[in-house]
């Protein structure tokens, strides 16, 4: 039976929901991009950070009570939250709380996703939510959580899991759910070799988005039970969910476009190739992720910067950008930028050329430099005449080259200061 998609609305259900965003991930597959910052604080889309997407989804859904659970190298993330997300009104019951691993229950770090909530159980209880929405802080998507919460209530579920439909052959990289005809979850396996298919659709499987809706008391019981289990790894996907499927009401909620009913946009930008590709998608004429949708704005912290500027129009030195996104504070000085995304305060000097690249904030690209299919980290200064992305063998001697041939350039790779990186 297909799931009925509920139209967007803000109700008492959303107002009585506490959202907990798990933002402690180290993101090691992003290599140098997460050497000095956590994955949720990695810049994305020209002016945002990854954490801005789930947080904006909450605000746009009418959920204004949020906790962000941090752990790994969280300084830049905490600073971003303090600068860009401090507009909530406490007297109206709104808040965003930062919940670092602080040894509230024992002397350890967060051992897993379930343990992160368990160690903050007293704080969750203090807020007395009816429902707890658990979110991953490191995915890119735009989702109204209201219909999912309504679906959870309509089904009388103990827990509802957000999911998306993927080809069976690619499902092996995700947590995969088996369901019956009513979308009740019958199995949950992490990265299975033989994923269960959707009933009636043998070539498609349901992958978990890392989004869970829990009834309050049910969550408390499961967290305590999991903490008392010495065999548990303290993780929702590996332990909590598989252990409750046979005797509790666990339902799947497919993430679809509310207008078309088709699979909605969702990206895990956990590798350099995926991160580069997701940024490159934004440059397209009609990208799946619409950052220009005024009905669903993405909130963030942004410095007060002048407009981007393009200077010189000589035959051999023309400042121009084609099929590109260029953020505030950038100066393209007699250089050419093609099919690239430039974050704020990027300076591209005369006769330089940038193609198919993602350039993070505060980067300077020297005269006559050539950059192709690269990700340039924040604060990098590319020396005059340097060539990147044309010779994989030479690139690998100095930089990180991904499986897909994307070159990652970080300040320390060029022996430069790291003070701008965060």
From TrEMBL:
Involved in the biosynthesis of ADP-glucose, a building block required for the elongation reactions to produce glycogen. Catalyzes the reaction between ATP and alpha-D-glucose 1-phosphate (G1P) to produce pyrophosphate and ADP-Glc. The gene is glgC. SUPFAM superfamilies: Nucleotide-diphospho-sugar transferases, Trimeric LpxA-like enzymes. Homotetramer. Pfam families: Hexapep_GlmU, NTP_transferase. CDD domains: ADP_Glucose_PP, LbH_G1P_AT_C. It comes from the Bacteria. Keywords: ATP-binding, Carbohydrate metabolism, Glycogen biosynthesis, Glycogen metabolism, Nucleotide-binding, Nucleotidyltransferase, Transferase. It comes from Thiohalomonas denitrificans. One of its GO terms (molecular function) is ATP binding. The record marks 71, 109 as: Could play a key role in the communication between the regulatory and the substrate sites. HAMAP family: GlgC (MF_00624). NCBIfam families: glgC, PRK00725.1, PRK00844.1. Residues 306-409 form the Glucose-1-phosphate adenylyltransferase/Bifunctional protein GlmU-like C-terminal hexapeptide domain. Its EC number is 2.7.7.27. GO terms for biological process: glycogen biosynthetic process. Residues 19-282 form the Nucleotidyl transferase domain. It is an enzyme of class 2 (transferase). Pathway: Glycan biosynthesis; glycogen biosynthesis. Alpha-D-glucose 1-phosphate binds at residues 110, 175, 190-191, 208. It catalyses: alpha-D-glucose 1-phosphate + ATP + H(+) = ADP-alpha-D-glucose + diphosphate. The lineage of its organism: Bacteria, Pseudomonadati, Pseudomonadota, Gammaproteobacteria, Thiohalomonadales. This is Glucose-1-phosphate adenylyltransferase. Belongs to the bacterial/plant glucose-1-phosphate adenylyltransferase family.
